[in-house]
Amino acid sequence: MRKIWQNDGFQRNFYAWVLLFPSLIFITLFTFYPITKTLHLSFFRLDLGTPQGIYMGLGNFRGMLEDEVFWKVLKNNIWFAAGTIPISMGMGMLMALALNKAMVGRSWLRTFFFYPTVIPMIAIANIWLFIYTPEYGLLNHILSWVGVGRVNWLGNPNIVMWAMIIMVIWKESGFFMIFYLAGLQNISRELYEAAEIDGASSITVFTKITFPLLMPTTLFIFIIALTNSFKLVDHLVIMTQGGPNNASNLLLYYIYETAFKFWDQGVASALTVIMLVIMVIIASIQFFGLDKKIYYS
């Protein structure tokens, strides 16, 4: 026994597991158990009419797939992700490229661009609610100066999602800028000096040096942005409640409504399982596909 304990490899692994054990307890309690419980509840009818629960098998999933609201909400979430992710990432990269250079007031500009990130989403929703208000909102006042009539930004189902997308882009671009700045500062200056000696243009330097070496950062930001597009719902509580006619409703807010407004835990659990499956598929594509095609310096 003494020889086993004196083995360096055993001691190192033992101490590692001892240090990881508290985290494992928290992960089990707040991640693995809720996922397992949600999967279990998704097979039961569990609402106000059946508080004890009745086993339904895949009945909740079949009903969900026949629900027009579910497909509309899922479509909204796809459009929300498609609208926010590329633009906010692109703006974050452009801001990082501009602020990575030596200039007067660079620190102030970085703070200015990053500031929306530290504001709570509830506060941002209230700020943009004032901006979008039809009667006295800031945006409609500006439009009235150029002769454009008042627009009901949050009451028109055709434009309410675009209003949400613009607000989220404003909030997240500065957050992504910080990651791109860190990625840019890790690129060796010798590469740029060699390109300058060879007479490479700015476009060539960006496409052949900067962008390829930023791909690990870009992939990391992409996963964060995609996750945020499915979990950002605080603004809906303040601004639209998912309306009008579910035009701005997103999957997580629909789960919240189903569970805590309609008190249908079975269907809400099934919706949560679908969202988890979507996120697992995305993570698998990232791990088994994109990640292996990226060059890490």
In short:
The chain crosses the membrane at residues 12-35, 78-100, 112-131, 159-182, 203-226, 267-290. One of its GO terms (cellular component) is plasma membrane. This protein is mainly α.
3D architecture notes:
It is a single chain. This protein has 14 helices and two strands; from the N terminus they run ααββαααααααααααα. By secondary structure, it is an all-alpha fold. It folds into two domains: 1-41, no CATH class; 59-293, MetI-like fold (Orthogonal Bundle), CATH 1.10.3720. Strands 1-2 form a two-stranded antiparallel ribbon. Helix 8 packs antiparallel against helix 11 (215-231) and helix 13 (251-260) runs antiparallel to helix 14. The longest helix is centred in the first third of the chain and has 34 residues, at 8-41. It is globular. The two termini are 45 Å apart. The mean pLDDT is 86.
